[in-house]
Structure formats: C-alpha cells, structure tokens
Amino acid sequence: MLRVQNLGVAYKEYEAVRDVNFALCPGEWLMLVGPNGAGKSTIIKAVSQSLKYKGEVTLDGQDISKLHARQLAKKMAVLQQSHAVGYAFTVEQLVRFGRYAYKSAFSRVDTQGERLVEEAIDVCGLSRIRHQNVLILSGGELQRAFLAQAFAQDAPLLLLDEPASHLDMAYQQTLFELVETWRRHDKRSVLSVVHDVQMARRYGTHALLLKDGRVTASGAVDDVFTREKLQTVYGMDVNAWLSWLHAPWLDGQTGTHSV
Q1: Neighbouring-strand partners of residue 248
Q2: How far apart are the first and last CA of the chain?
Q3: Which domains are delineated in the chain?
Q4: Rounded to an integer, what distance in angstroms lies between the CA atom of residue 248 and that of residue 199?
Q5: 3-state class of 33 per DSSP?
Q6: pLDDT by residue (tens digit) across 83-106?
Q7: Which residues on neighbouring strands pair with residue 215, listed in sequence order?
Q8: For 186-232, what is each residue's pLDDT tens digit?
Q9: Secondary structure element (H or E) that encloses residue 158, with its range
C-alpha cells in the first residue's frame, strides 16, 4: 500500500501542495484531477522522490525517501508526459532499460527478465518496430515504448504524469487500455494525473479532486465526480461538461455517471 501523509511542497515562498493525505491499495487506480496549478504533477514528483517535500510517503510501511535508486525502481515505475531522448537507441534497447534495477541494461538478463522484456514489447504492440531508432518514432510510438519500459520494470506501482495529454484520442485510449490490463494483473496500483474527467471516470477506481494545492474531495470516482464538487473546484457551470461522461467512446461503450 502507498500511503501519503501530511504532504507539503513549497517552491520558495509558494506552497504548491498543502496537507495532502491519501492511501492507494493494491489493485486501485487513483486519479489526481483538478485545474491547472492544483498541484497534481507536484504530488507525482514528490511521491517519485523527484523533489523535496514535507510529510511522509511510505510503501508497504517503508519510508521510500530512505531507499536507494535501484531499490525504489523495484517498487515503482514512472511514465512522464514527455521524454528527452538524446541517443539513437533502438526500441528494444529502450525497453531493456526497465531492467536496470536488476542488471546493467545491456548485459544479458535472466530468464524472467528476458520474458518480461519480450512480454512488454509484445503487449505494447512494438514487435514490428523493436529494432527501429527511437529518434524517428511518432509521439504515440515513443510513449508506448516508454510504457513498455515501465512494464518491463515489473514494479507493483505505476505513476503516470499526464502520459497521454499530447496524444490524439485513439492513442490516449490505447495507452489507458494497456495500463488498465497491466493494473488488473496481480492487483497492481496506478497513481495518475488526468485532465480529462471522462477518462478518469472510465478507468479510475478512486479520485482525488484538488484545488490550489489542497484536496477538496476524495473517494470512489462516483462519489467524487458530482456536479457540486466539480463546480466548486472548476468554478463554472458543469452541466454540459458532465454530459460528456455519458458520451460514446471509440469502442461504442458509454460512461455512466449519476448527478
């Protein structure tokens, strides 16, 4: 279980996040939702140990701030919104970096590691381009390659910082479907930043609604995404917006929501 207690993050005199508390149990997908500047990405960065914070972040009862990088990589994987790739790795080489916590990325991996790399490449639909230069991939292909790297890492917790915001609708749904399948396997957990409430409602089990760095609502997605709570956070008439939660998806399914 991931547990965050009294989390606070400040940039000089500006408090980006204040008194944030939540728990993420195995098998859950917690969506961080709120307007720009609400502190969503800051929470992800704090949990992933990318910036200094006050409070406590524990995983299975262990303070993760005391873990070495390789120890932490065995417990959580992170998928960012964008990636700076400066070398002409192949897709397969990029995916193999997911095993760095266990061995050198370019050394021979053990049988289980090899299986995980091959499964990640196959599941993410990268077999055809596994030997291709990552510098010439499309945005969607590159993001799938980094997702495969995260899957190969085989950590029980996956952090997503707006991983699909720059992708078209088809790629967004593909990415989230891949994560959903991964989550359901062995009751893995996901913590993600999402701007699209419809996407959060469709895939999330729980949600944290944020405004100005503070939590305004938390719980199961149906309990969080109500007219009153969304209107408090976004400060606008959300009636038309809420109707999107019933809109047909690419596969013909619809979301359901009670308001």
Answers
A1: 254
A2: 31
A3: 1-75+156-259 (3.40.50.300), 84-154 (no CATH)
A4: 12
A5: strand
A6: 777 788 999 999 999 998 887 555
A7: 210
A8: 889 999 999 888 889 999 999 999 999 999 999 999 999 998 899 88
A9: strand 157-161
